[in-house]
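[Automated response] Your request has been received and processed.

Submitted sequence:
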Amino acid sequence: MNMYIFKTSIEPQDIRIVNSILRAIIPSCIWTFDLEDCDRILRIKSNKNINKLVCFHLKIDGFQCEELQ
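Generated structure:
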């Protein structure tokens, strides 16, 4: 399983919306948020390459999202 780490603009009040987005596009993945980090980290464990898909959908909904290497 691969770990993908994203820098985002997600705020605590956005968690419900982002969870809904992620459930719709990658339902079988496991994700966690670290919103206390200055980069508002989103971590996703997946067997598939989902980095572009996640960034695309979060950006459509108005969030900043970029994968960290």
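Summary generated for your ticket: Residues 23 and 29 are 8 Å apart (CA to CA). The chain has one domain: 2-68.
If you did not submit this request, please reply to this message.
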